[in-house]
Amino acid sequence: MIIVKNLKRYYGTGATIVKALNGVTFEINKGEIVAIMGASGSGKTTLLRILALLDDATEGEYTIQGLEVSSLPESERSYYRLTKVGYVFQDYALINEMSAAENVYVLSMMEGKSKKDSYDIALEALDKVGLKDKHARVPDELSGGEKQRVAIARAIAKKPDILFADEPCANLDTTNSRQVLEVFKELNEKYGQTIVMVTHEQWHTKYVDRVITLKDGNIISDEMERK
Ligand SMILES: Nc1ncnc2c1ncn2[C@@H]1O[C@H](COP(=O)(O)OP(=O)(O)O)[C@@H](O)[C@H]1O
Ligand SMILES: [Mg+2]
């Protein structure tokens, strides 16, 4: 599903160059749930942002669902970004003045779908994360874990090929983290959602199939989790 070949991302030039990704090569299969681990600064966010087309690589190729996205023109990149990938941020990135459902359906509305269709899509996505009954609440009326689950609902509303999540539990306590991880696991098991999640908590790895570890922009291990 994802094939990444010799991916590099350098920031800056000359003496101050930072080699955030130093040539990484790997594949992710459809239906896998994968954790990307590694110390702070090892290149995890850089990798995720490139794969989600939020940033460009300096060198290397990557193919998603047979499409070589690394060389797509910008017009197709934005279409791809909006429809094929979902992205969950550490800080939820919800709009405070909007209900959970509105936060989820804002993207469908932007696409020109009717309010009714957008609402139905939002409720279906909220149902998948166990929050259908809280669709009318604004973010302030939700726990941290619930806020992150609304952000996940927004990311999966388009039924993306791949869901990326960058430290989705970084601001959550253990109970809320567990709820979020269980939602990922269920999306993966029930709907076959492919998920790539960055984390630095070892206990999170029991929710995934495979762990890829980065160090200084290189992959230092890539192992299946024993269940
Ligand atoms: N926009 C940027 N400009 C310059 N250096 C950056 C930028 N973003 C990240 N870096 C550097 O690239 C390296 C990898 O960063 P990052 O991918 O954020 O790591 P991680 O997510 O694993 O903590 C770090 O050394 C970081 O300082
Ligand atoms: Mg990071």
TrEMBL record:
Q: Which family does it belong to?
A: Belongs to the ABC transporter superfamily.
Q: Which domain of life is it from?
A: Archaea
Task: Point out the coiled-coil segments of this chain.
Answer: none
Keywords from the named record: ATP-binding, Nucleotide-binding, Transport
Asked whether the keyword Calcium is assigned, the reply is no
Q: Name one Pfam family in it.
A: ABC_tran
Q: Which organism is it from?
A: Candidatus Methanoperedens nitratireducens
MF terms from GO for this chain are: ATP binding; ATP hydrolysis activity
Domain (ABC transporter) ranges:
2-227
Name of the molecule in the record = ABC-type antimicrobial peptide transport system, ATPase component
